[in-house]
Amino acid sequence: MRPLLALLAALIPLCAVYGAEPNTLTPEQRKDGWTLLFDGRDTEGWRSFGKKEFPAAGWDVENGWLHHKPKGGGGDIITTRTFRNFELTFDWRIAPGGNSGVKYFIDEKRGAPIGHEYQVIDDAAHPDASHGPKRQTAALYDALPPVNPAVRKAGEVNRSRIVVRGDTVEHWLNGRLALRYGIGSPELQAAKAASKFKNEARWGIRFPTPILLQDHQDEVWFRDIRIRPLLPKAGG
Known about the structure:
By secondary structure, the chain is α+β, with helices and mostly antiparallel strands. Helix content is 13%, strand content 30%. The protein starts with a helix and ends in a 7-residue tail after the last strand.
């Protein structure tokens, strides 16, 4: 029994962090300010980019996952709420050969879903990933690469985290920090100049933002999407 008791003791802290089941919050998490952006049952709180309604096709709820069907259409979806300083966590899995992303610093006035993208992709099989680490899982897409990301293969569940606090942004993957960058930093400015976003005036600055899930025509699943506000750093 001792090994079993040791295993249960190890699992208790994980339950405190992630909740007893996906798409749920513990009382401690609620006290810490966490809210669910997806409850595993419906799409309340989400709508199509540039529209008031949720798409009629392409996206659905499947066994507790917010699911985009392969070549199903529907377009990108965004939260109806916006956030400034926040910690966002989410589970995801990508179909073999698939590509998607989670975006922030999104401004619908641009008319296009351009923003900072946490890359979600099958690094082993999608052609875009062959361009290098700046287009691989946990990257700031086409700008900054992750460092030794703890990525799992297509079809397996990954857990990601995005932290925006003042001018500091972090990308986490499966419990490990994959990328940290500073808004307005020389590093980010140089990365922008070398990227496809070099002529996008509002790329590389921060402002209140919805969270966007990308329709890249491939099959992808998201669940346990939760967020909490953070106190800004000085000047944030």
